[in-house]
Amino acid sequence: MTAESRDRAAAAAAPGGRKAGRRPGGRATRDEIHEAARSAFAEHGYDRATIRDIASRARVDPALVIHYFGSKEQLFSAALRLPVEPAEVLARVRAQAPDEMGPALVRAFLSVWEPEETRTPLIATLRSAMTNETAMTLVREHLDRRIFGPITAALQSDDAELRATLIGSQLIGLAMMRYIAGVQPLASASVEQLVAAVGPTVQRYITGDLGGAADA
Amino acid sequence: MTAESRDRAAAAAAPGGRKAGRRPGGRATRDEIHEAARSAFAEHGYDRATIRDIASRARVDPALVIHYFGSKEQLFSAALRLPVEPAEVLARVRAQAPDEMGPALVRAFLSVWEPEETRTPLIATLRSAMTNETAMTLVREHLDRRIFGPITAALQSDDAELRATLIGSQLIGLAMMRYIAGVQPLASASVEQLVAAVGPTVQRYITGDLGGAADA
């Protein structure tokens, strides 16, 4: 019996409502551990989040957390996965005309950050990465593989990697100021205001002249 | 006798070399508590840095830390102060021709982040702000008063506050990616490459058209 078929069998057998106390595994439990991990990383950061605390939040035995996810490191990697697929977001951006990609990318980025259910795990990720070297390494690998890699491949220019990370620098700074620091008036600006203000910056990093930055 | 004249008198009377064990107050000790606070905030973040730990690093009694700085909150505020004065950096930028201010501001910003002795406390500040609401409030107040306020005043336009925070978003994102995440090739790019690549972004936020962002 594979772990997945066991999950499905357990989920089919599980009663509908939540019960107090520790429960056996199942698809719902796995998702709940995932959610518990996200809220623990969000609240305490990678360093202070513990398997024990995550298990207690999900009301399961710590051994079950290890059974499903293996380690705190793997649990954090799982928590990095968003409800939205970066590849799909980027595919929508690439469907735009070349000179519309900058504003489209800003709009797509903000559409991921605006809803609380994606913003909370993203803030948790940033917070953990800022305070723990292991978490930072995992985030950096994730960014390289899932975000900068596809953007670099799409740009198809010699300095594509520099361009991808310049885009990242503007977008991550925008998220920091708006969603984490809550600096005004950036925090209360409308999405359309930000697309108009920041879109041309990203457009220039995609297709513009970087002033010989690539040759230096 | 004021606190300052007492410091001076104590410093004048103090022997030159460092001694083991706890020592009485003095200018050197005050600076050493300041340094100890910075390294404690850098290592542990605001939440986990304690007065006791800071006192132990500076080899003084915790009561002396309280005597000089009052509270952990005030100690953090003191640690926010950099060896460079933001007003002086901004004055140098304002001495440039209007269409040179963007690149000049990027160069000035990087000149503060490049040396390790200013980078370390800046990273400590960001790390603390990311993980503690009190620290974030102190950082936000500090940014408003010392950085965004003067930039806003210098810009003298209706949407100056939005422009100042957009500049902040690009610069803080650049610092995050280059100095904290160490994302390549941004981390190893030369200062001049970055001035060429990012200068026009900041220039546009200073003097450019924000696409009606101010009216929306």
Describe this structure in words.
Chain A has 216 residues and is mainly α. Chain A folds into two domains: 3-80, Homeodomain-like (Arc Repressor Mutant, subunit A, Orthogonal Bundle); 86-207, Tetracycline Repressor, domain 2 (Orthogonal Bundle). Helix content of chain A is 73%, strand content 0%. Chain A has eleven helices and no strands. Chain A has helices spanning 3-13, 27-48, 51-58, 62-69, 72-80, 86-94, 101-113, 116-131, 133-155, 160-180, 191-207. The N and C termini of chain A lie far apart (58 Å). Mean pLDDT of chain A is 82; it is low at 1-20. Chains A and B meet through helix 8, helix 9, helix 10 and helix 11 of A and helix 8, helix 9, helix 10 and helix 11 of B.
Characteristic key phrases:
homodimer; 216 residues; mainly alpha; Arc Repressor Mutant, subunit A; Tetracycline Repressor, domain 2; 2 domains; 11 helices; 0% strand; elongated; disordered N terminus
Provide the β-strand percentage band of chain A: under 5%
Major protein interface: A-B, 51 and 51 residues
Number of helices of chain A: 11
User: Please, how many domains of chain A?
Assistant: 2
**Proportion of helical residues of chain A:** over 70%
What is the CATH architecture annotation of the largest domain in chain A? Orthogonal Bundle
Please give the largest β-sheet of chain A: none
Quaternary assembly = homodimer
